From TrEMBL:
InterPro entries: CarboxyPept-like_regulatory, OMP_b-brl_3, Plug_dom, Plug_dom_sf, TonB-dep_rcpt-like
PANTHER family reported for this sequence: PLUG DOMAIN-CONTAINING PROTEIN, TONB-DEPENDENT RECEPTOR-LIKE BETA-BARREL DOMAIN-CONTAINING PROTEIN
Protein's cellular compartments: Cell outer membrane
Domain TonB-dependent receptor plug, residue spans: 135-235
Signal peptide: 1-25
GO cellular component: cell outer membrane
Domain of life where this protein originates: Bacteria
The organism's taxonomic lineage, starting at the top: Bacteria, Pseudomonadati, Bacteroidota, Flavobacteriia, Flavobacteriales
The protein's name in its UniProt record: TonB-dependent receptor
The UniProt record lists the keyword Signal: yes
Keyword terms, alphabetized: Cell outer membrane, Membrane, Receptor, Signal, Transmembrane, Transmembrane beta strand, Transport
Record-stated family: Belongs to the TonB-dependent receptor family.
Domain Outer membrane protein beta-barrel: 602-653
Keyword Membrane assigned: yes
Length: 657
């Protein structure tokens, strides 16, 4: 019992201190929202009571709170980038929270003899105001800036921020790099809740999974503060979904286009509907997005080396071939042409709502479900110089120090799926991400308290991914006159189309499934504090728990069909050469095993290949517990300081092979 009393004593003392302070000071609180003339919330607004030198900055929902305001009548001033300054009289009573709603109007400038017509700053002004008033190094992008560019996914929108680069897949931004640090060293959150990763061998969050039109604001913090996750070494990206409006709102978009590689239509659409009850207590917002893009890509890939060896014709005493080395200039030793046919279908749904019990207590629920189907066929023509022991004098030609003719192994590979309504003869990557967050914001005297708990899950499933490869060997000519566009082609054109010489190499089928589940819980407390007598400051402290589980379950099978399908001439072929090949019409990719044939192939009694999958399978649990304390204080009118400490403890349990 004595231990319990000792533990309670600091909290009772702290409570008594706050209680007595309120009684002696006879203070109240002021809370409210800042909106524009259209009723849209304004984040980053500067709210001040000039006579007290007391102020606050509105959050992403336009809300602000002023604590410990002495009883009396004051003028409340609101300033905002691109908007007229707004003043309003308020009356503050002791031990009562005064609620106000302020609406500001955009500035207009009249010049003598000149009419100026322009688009308003809109929500980008909101983003700039938020960016200007943030404590750390932050970039903020608003929804109207996102909408000005043809960005299908949120990754393409993020890459426009200074200091951000993206790893690209099929022309779409996927993995984020902040200040040059790799994607797994950055954190991505949705409304402050960590987004799980469905990548099997890393922690990357695929940014191309989330449609751009589902996000209201992107906030990139390049310097993390103690109240943020400590593993975000490069930075943290917070994606903020649309919040409940102050009144009825409906919006929809519909667009289309055409892809000139596949001549298939591109379809885009989105819908948004929201409202708030007449008493202002309950607000809701529903939104949905759909994108269907059936496209393709043509590319060439080359590897270079400055080493060249060939078999001298003699062996050493151990029977090993003796190789001769030739000094050469850099040349292409591996060359590959690829043609992709891809269909990406994105669907996204979001439902957000909030309920205000009273001026001091609000709860909210934010949900999002993203589902992407990525269907792909790939046709790859790979050509690589033979091993040195397989090259003899007379098999090659070196011109001006550059090998321009040599024997190569040539492979023709088809990538496909199975024939059903989901795969449609293509490799299907089914990726989903869902997030459900419940939280609240509360004001108890001069103590601000917010909390949130969330459940998130990400999964990636790739079933029946099939490859068929046939190989041949013949002499190729290497054209490197233009290093940007190198090219291999058969020295004897008949070799490239002699499909009977392309022998069976392999037919495989792979299944992959990766899943990650995250449960997050955090609480934050904030108290006003002015240690140096220079105006507003605060002390903030809190804790967080993150509980993650991740599993990967893959299989890989090989099928010995060499007796039934010994050469490429024994299977249905399809020619994918095109004069419109985007890398140039000099690249004739040729014929491959038909994806339709591979999809319909009845693959049974395959031999498992453990080296291809067994060591990659795992089941991991990770628990993170964190606590922090931080203080933000003004040392002078133009200089402030933020100090803090964060402690994290991580435990990991893993089962693997």
């Amino acid at each position: 019992m004595r231990t319990t009393k000792l533990l309670r004593l600091p909290f009772l003392t702290l409570f008594a201190l706050f209680f007595s302070t309120n009684i002696l000071a006879q203070t109240g609180n002021v809370t409210g929202t800042i909106s524009d003339e259209n009723g849209f919330y304004l984040p980053g607004a500067n709210v001040m009571i000039p006579s007290l030198s007391k102020g606050a900055i509105s959050d992403f929902e336009g809300k602000f709170t002023l604590l410990e305001v002495p009883e009396g009548t004051y003028t409340l001033s609101v300033s905002y980038l691109g908007y007229n300054e707004k003043e309003q009289q308020i009356v503050v009573n002791a031990d009562i929270t005064t609620e106000v709603s302020l609406f500001v109007e955009q500035k207009s400038l009249e010049l003598d003899g000149v009419d100026v017509v322009a688009f308003g700053l809109g929500s980008q002004a909101k983003a700039l105001s938020t960016q200007k008033n943030n404590l750390n190094i932050t970039n903020v992008v608003s929804t109207d800036q996102i909408g000005k560019f043809p960005d299908v996914n949120i990754g393409d929108a993020v890459k426009r921020i200074p200091g951000i680069t993206m790893q690209v897949d099929q022309g779409e931004a996927r993995n984020i790099i902040v200040r040059g640090l790799s994607p797994q060293l950055n954190s991505v959150t949705l409304n402050g809740s960590r987004i799980p990763s469905a990548e099997g061998d890393n922690r990357n969050v695929q940014m191309d999974l989330i449609p751009a039109d589902m996000i209201q604001t992107i906030e990139v913090s390049k310097a993390v503060t103690p109240d943020m996750d400590a593993d975000a070494l490069g930075g943290s990206v917070n994606l903020i979904t649309r919040t409940s409006p102050q009144g009825f709102r409906v919006s929809s978009t519909l667009g289309s286009g055409i892809n000139f590689i596949t001549d298939k239509a591109i379809i885009n659409g989105s819908f948004l509907l929201g409202d708030r009850t007449k008493n202002g207590k309950f607000g809701w917002m529903l939104s949905a997005s759909f994108n269907d893009n059936d496209f393709g890509s043509d590319n060439i890939e080359a590897e270079w080396t400055d080493e060249f060896e060939y078999y001298s014709g003699t062996d050493d005493i151990d029977g090993e071939p003796i190789l001769e080395e030739v000094d050469v200039n850099p040349y292409t030793n591996v060359f590959e042409q690829r043609k992709y046919l891809v269909q990406r279908v994105r669907r996204s749904f979001s439902a957000n709502m909030d309920y205000k019990f009273d001026v001091n207590n609000t709860i909210f629920l934010k949900t999002m479900y993203n589902w992407r189907d990525d269907r792909e066929n790939r046709f790859a023509l790979g050509q690589e110089i033979l091993d040195p022991e397989d090259i003899e004098l007379g098999d090659f030609t070196i011109t001006n120090g550059v090998p321009t003719r040599f024997p190569a192994v040539v492979a023709r590979q088809t990538k496909a799926g199975i024939d059903n309504d989901r795969n449609k003869n293509r490799r299907l990557e089914d990726q989903r991400m869902q997030n459900y967050s419940l939280g609240g914001n509360h004001l108890w005297g001069n103590l601000k308290f917010d909390w949130m708990s969330s459940y998130a899950k990400a999964s990636e499933e790739r079933l029946n991914e099939r490859y068929a490869q046939y190989e041949s060997e013949y002499t190729v000519t290497s054209d490197v006159l233009n290093p940007r566009y190198p090219r291999f082609y058969a020295a004897d054109p008949g070799d490239a189309t002699n499909f009977e010489a392309f022998a069976f190499d392999e037919i495989t089928e792979e299944n992959q499934y990766t899943e990650e589940e995250d449960i997050n819980v955090f609480v934050n407390f904030q108290l006003p504090a002015d240690f140096f007598g220079q105006g507003d400051g605060f002390v903030k402290f809190g804790g967080r728990g993150r509980f993650k589980s991740k599993l990967r379950d893959n299989t890989f099978f090989e099928f010995d069909l060499e007796d039934d399908l010994p050469t490429l001439a024994n299977v249905p072929l399809k020619d994918y050469s095109s004069a419109d090949f985007y890398a140039g019409n000099q690249y004739a990719i040729g014929s491959f095993a038909s994806e339709d044939w591979l999809a319909e192939l009845d693959l049974v009694n395959g031999a498992p290949v453990p080296d291809e999958f067994l060591r990659a399978n795992f089941d991991v649990d990770e628990n993170v517990f964190a606590g922090y304390v931080m203080a933000n204080q003004k040392l002078s009118e133009s200089f402030g300081i933020l100090l803090g400490l964060r402690v994290e403890a991580t435990s990991i349990t893993a089962v693997g092979n």
